[in-house]
Amino acid sequence: YGKPTDSDFLFFLDNNTGRDSYIARIPVFIDYDENSSYPDILPCYYIFIEFDSKHIPHDIGFPELLVDESVDISRELTNYSFAFYKFGELTHRSGEFFYNNNSSAYGEFDEEFTVFSTENYHHLNYKKDDNTQIIVSRSKYGFSEIIAPFSYLLVLFLLLIMVFWLFSNYNRYSFTTHFNFKRRIRLSMIVIVILSAVSIGWASVWFLYNIHENKNLSNLGEKAHSVLVELEHELGNEQYLSDEYSFYYHDLLLRLSNVFFTDISLFDKNGYLIASSRSRIFEEGLVSEHMNPVAVSKMRNQNKSFFAHNEQIGNLKYLSAYIPLINNNNEHIAYINLPYFARENQLQYELTTFLVTFINIYFLILVLAIVFAFFISNYVTKPLQLIKDNLSRIRLGKINKKINWHRNDEIGSLVKEYNRMIDELEVSVELLAKNERESAWREMAKQVAHEIKNPLTPMKLSVQYLHKAWKDGAEDWEARLEGFTKTMVEQIDSLSLIAGEFSDFAKMPANNNKKIELNKIIPQALELYKDFDKVNIEIDIEDEKMFVYADPKQLLRVFNNLIKNAIQSYHKDQTAYIFIKCKKENENIIISIKDKGSGIPNNKKDKIFKPYFTTKTGGFGLGLAIVKSIVEGFNGEISFESEKNIGSTFIIKLPVVKD
């Protein structure tokens, strides 16, 4: 019933066992004629040789060492199960899936290839012929296996985003300055979640690895004692083990190897190999025929009844156990060695499954932590932001609102301190305003008294001289009366000027602001000086119309005051050159009034806009203080640049009024 092959003597046998089987029939001829290559008679003998592929349990790891590296063996095949059915009856199965004894349990299959699912497995049915079918099965992918690649990609993208963010914001942010309290709360929560995930993940992997190692050691111990019981039963009557029976020992170990799914080696009392279920490993020189010296020391010198440690063949690491063999007379006759090849792919699968599930769970936790961090940071910092906003709105001399906070916590204590500060600030503002008013009145009274005292002295002397001339009957009485009258009028005018200046500074007239065109106001200010012989004013104004929101009278007063100061910066014998320029820059109008006069000394520049300060021999030092007050009332700014003996430039910036 065999099928022919390329050789006339070799046939393939379909024995329905799921393994490859061959039979060879080789004829043996007897040559009676020395001169002929083949006799003309039939062969006298036939040699029959049967070949059956050997079944190797999956738990035995040594065969992988005997496979050429150039042979491509897919490790993925270990995840598959398969079964052979002949006439609907199960003849052979392999793998983790338990198949039914009859294929009819899965239905009738008419197609050559049919895919179906059952018991969380995907199956492929191959109908080889009318009597033979093969089913290949694999467990269905779980949710964690499906999203595993996405989990790893997600972790990679998160790391890349973090690195990119750190590099892009390296010079922008500082943990001590630009990272505010809210960002630090969010970052702290995220870092805590990430650190906890890393630490818990590392601890869990370490724990799983130890469990796997302990499980392997326990399995190895159980197998070693089971093998020991069997060998004691078979060899318990032996006094010693001889090399003459190595073939018998080999068959015995091979039978036990297939029963316990592990390779077994037997060493004599001196640690030399007697027999092994995988003798080719020793024949190829992959493993020494002498027992591991560490195991020999433990067994012989320390009388260990069981010893297991890690050994290595090339890059293959495995756990190896040693146990002494005792006969029925309680005599030590040999050492039993069991190399245990734990399925590394199983450990990797367990760790991968755990890490995928772990990463997915912790990614969800991380996302929730980021969301919670956002809301919690906003919730925690909301009262602080409220306090900050209220602090930024505090204005002296105005009503400042208090914060209502009903919780008795740390924020409540801070709010109480803020409200107490507001109360104290109001009291302090009132006291400060009162002190400022009193100080201003005292300063004003002092200045007024000083300014009035100057004209009163010559007035008093003039009255005294006139009275003396009247008593003495001076002949030039009329001339003296004329001089007295002139002096009195001059001093009274001086007193009126003093009163007017202080009145203007003490109470500026109410603004009558409106939209005005600077192109027309500035030339009006120059009309007063057009007839002055020693005053030369040049003006540069853009053709574009420029509008500001101001009081035209007060704006004229500003220009007049600045132009007058510019003229007075020259010596009375010099011709005053003044340059006025007006231009538009962005949302502002810039007006500059420049002179080439005596300039302002450096030690007086910081006092130039203060009341009662002047660089001239006459006047009260109120002009520039009034100018500054008027410009700021128009929401503008005034500044100056000056160098001694070179000149000064006063710059006014006013906001543009848009149409």
Notes on the protein architecture:
This protein is α+β, with helices and mostly antiparallel strands and 659 residues long. Helices cover 44% and strands 21% of the residues. Strands 6-5-9-8-7 form a five-stranded antiparallel β-sheet, with no helix packed on it. α9 crosses α10 (552-568).
Strand content: 15-25%
- CA radius of gyration: 56 Å
Query: Which whole number gives the mean pLDDT?
Result: 78
Distance linking N and C termini: 109 Å
Largest sheet: 5 strands, antiparallel
**Extended strand count:** 21
Strands in their spatial order, largest beta sheet:
6-5-9-8-7
How do the strands and helices of this protein lay out in sequence?
Elements: E1 3-4, E2 10-13, E3 21-28, E4 45-52, E5 80-86, E6 89-94, E7 113-118, E8 121-127, E9 132-139, H1 143-168, H2 181-235, H3 246-260, E10 265-267, E11 273-276, H4 279-283, H5 293-301, E12 307-313, E13 316-326, E14 332-340, H6 344-392, H7 410-472, H8 477-506, E15 514-517, H9 518-526, E16 535-541, E17 547-550, H10 552-568, E18 576-585, E19 588-595, H11 623-633, E20 637-643, E21 647-655
Parallel strand pairs: 16-18
Antiparallel strand pairs: 1-2, 2-3, 3-4, 5-6, 5-9, 7-8, 8-9, 10-11, 10-14, 12-13, 13-14, 15-17, 18-19, 19-21, 20-21
Report a brief summary of the structure.
The protein is α+β, with helices and mostly antiparallel strands and 659 residues long. Helices cover 44% and strands 21% of the residues.
